[in-house]
């Protein structure tokens, strides 16, 4: 099936969300790569002020994902998507006129918090609309996502030839158009809600008490730390290799990463789905991410095999990182929904993004320190070996989770009794398991069925019939 045919096979809301994500990344990446240069250059801000602005933008997004997800579950997905696009419109528009540090800080905080509002809502909406086709939907979604990242800087580069303020104005227009499109074309939708009213703290307690989800979130930190190196360690390596020509090589990194993701996403996802379930596919993708750094372990500097070999090793690592990221993303997004049990999906997404966001921050700080120390010590390969080790640990953690899911849910006792209701107590009556030598007869009227198995990472969702809430579009 072609990309267009796959895209056309989804309902209109899912299609709109995919196109919306392309527009979000187009508008964002046409501006943000050039923000630091504008702040330090024409505006003349000090280096500490530039760092403060970028830090505020990052924290206002990564640190607020849980707030955005919680609001989406309580108010509905559409209001948060529209509000996020509108807020980012205002933030980029303010950058057109901002000429002082306080104004720039407000604009940066607005653009960051906007992402915290619409990111969990978009993913929860797409998961609900796609139903049993979640993996396929997120595969196509990632193609639009990566296409926006690829096109954004190219458009921004052309606009920067005129002026940064023009670039900011065009980015604001893009988000204004997205706001109008979501407001009038996107149907209202919200997640499955409980009949019992709960507080925000109750919702957060539900998420935090989901140990399997927490374990999965922590295990996936490695995936984000490794894939983020295309913005940190790999550009630093390009500068180390190419010197004055590093900008061309850095541009090539982003082009290769974007093209591989856009061109290969559906093929990679279909290949994995045909062979393994979500759990094993995640392990396979994480293994590819870990192996991505082998070329740079072998050729860490131009002095070993020459500059050309070092460039080839860098581009090979970039390609493998793009393949691994494309392999992981659809199954990762699907697994978050599965482990949430289709309850508080946006809140789970928000919490998940917060956890991996903290992991990215810590991982980037550690990577930056290790890069400098390793080069000073003449052991450049240690950086890439350390990153590969992070991938191996994450892959092992996912293997353990996947094996735990496949463990037979048998018990030495049968438990019967009433299921827990919103009010009242839950009583369990234990009976010895029947054996061949002493069969146990029980009356159907007195014996309750075995408890429903909990959702698993590699769960076969055929348990949900087409008319169930999880499968409805």
Description:
This protein has 473 residues and is mainly α. It has 2 domains: 9-190, MFS general substrate transporter like domains (Growth Hormone, Chain: A); 199-405, MFS general substrate transporter like domains (Growth Hormone, Chain: A). The protein is built from 20 helices and 2 strands. It has helices at residues 3-8, 12-29, 35-40, 47-62, 65-75, 77-97, 101-130, 134-160, 164-185, 200-208, 211-219, 221-227, 233-242, 246-275, 278-291, 294-298, 302-305, 307-340, 345-377, 381-406, and strands spanning 413-416, 429-432. Strands 1-2 form a two-stranded antiparallel ribbon. It starts with a helix and ends in a 41-residue tail after the last strand.
Tag the structure with descriptive keywords.
Growth Hormone, Chain: A; 2 domains; Putative MFS family arabinose efflux permease; disordered C terminus; 20 helices; mainly alpha; 473 residues
In short:
By secondary structure, the protein is an all-alpha fold. It contains 20 helices and 2 strands. The protein has 2 domains: 9-190, Growth Hormone, Chain: A (Up-down Bundle), CATH 1.20.1250.20; 199-405, MFS general substrate transporter like domains (Growth Hormone, Chain: A), CATH 1.20.1250.20.
């Amino acid at each position: 099936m072609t990309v267009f045919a796959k895209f056309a096979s989804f309902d209109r809301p899912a299609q709109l969300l995919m196109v919306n994500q392309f527009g979000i990344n187009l508008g964002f990446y046409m501006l943000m790569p050039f923000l630091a240069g504008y702040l330090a250059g024409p505006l003349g801000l000090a280096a500490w002020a530039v760092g403060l602005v970028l830090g505020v933008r990052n924290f206002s997004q990564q640190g607020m994902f849980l707030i955005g997800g919680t609001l989406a579950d309580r108010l509905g997905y559409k209001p948060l998507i529209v509000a996020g696009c509108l807020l980012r419109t205002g933030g980029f528009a303010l950058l057109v006129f901002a000429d002082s540090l306080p104004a720039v800080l407000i604009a940066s905080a607005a653009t960051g918090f906007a992402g915290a509002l619409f990111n969990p809502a978009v993913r929860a909406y797409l998961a609900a609309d796609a139903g049993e086709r979640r993996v396929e939907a997120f595969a196509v979604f990632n193609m639009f996502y990566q296409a926006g990242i690829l096109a954004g800087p190219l458009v921004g580069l052309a606009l920067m030839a005129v002026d940064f303020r023009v670039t900011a104005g065009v980015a604001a227009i893009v988000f204004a158009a997205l706001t109008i499109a979501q407001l009038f074309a996107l149907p209202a939708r919200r997640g499955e809600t409980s009949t019992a009213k709960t507080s925000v703290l109750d919702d957060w307690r539900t998420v935090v008490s989901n140990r399997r989800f927490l374990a999965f979130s922590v295990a996936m930190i490695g995936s984000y730390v490794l894939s983020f190196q295309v913005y940190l360690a790999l550009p630093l390596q390009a500068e180390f290799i190419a010197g004055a020509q590093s900008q061309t090589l850095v541009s090539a990194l982003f082009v290769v990463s974007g093209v591989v993701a856009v061109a290969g996403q559906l093929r990679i996802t279909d290949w994995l789905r045909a062979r393994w379930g979500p759990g094993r596919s995640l392990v396979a993708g994480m293994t590819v991410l870990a192996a991505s750094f082998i070329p740079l372990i072998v050729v860490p500097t131009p002095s070993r095999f020459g500059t050309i070999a070092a460039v080839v090793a860098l581009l090979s690592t970039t390609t493998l990182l793009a393949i691994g990221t494309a392999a992981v993303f659809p199954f990762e997004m699907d697994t978050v929904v599965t482990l949430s049990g289709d309850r508080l999906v946006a809140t789970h997404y928000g919490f998940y993004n917060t956890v991996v966001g903290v992991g990215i921050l810590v991982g980037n700080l550690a990577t930056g320190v290790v890069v400098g120390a390793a080069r000073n010590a003449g052991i450049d390969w240690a950086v890439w070996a350390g990153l590969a080790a992070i991938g191996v640990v994450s892959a092992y953690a996912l293997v353990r989770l996947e094996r735990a899911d496949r463990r037979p849910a048998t018990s030495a006792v049968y438990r019967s009794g009433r299921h827990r209701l919103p009010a009242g107590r839950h009583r369990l009556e234990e009976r010895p398991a029947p054996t061949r030598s002493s069969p146990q007869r029980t009356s159907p009227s007195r014996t309750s069925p075995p408890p429903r198995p909990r959702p698993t990472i590699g769960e076969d969702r055929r348990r949900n019939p087409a008319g169930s809430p999880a499968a409805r579009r």
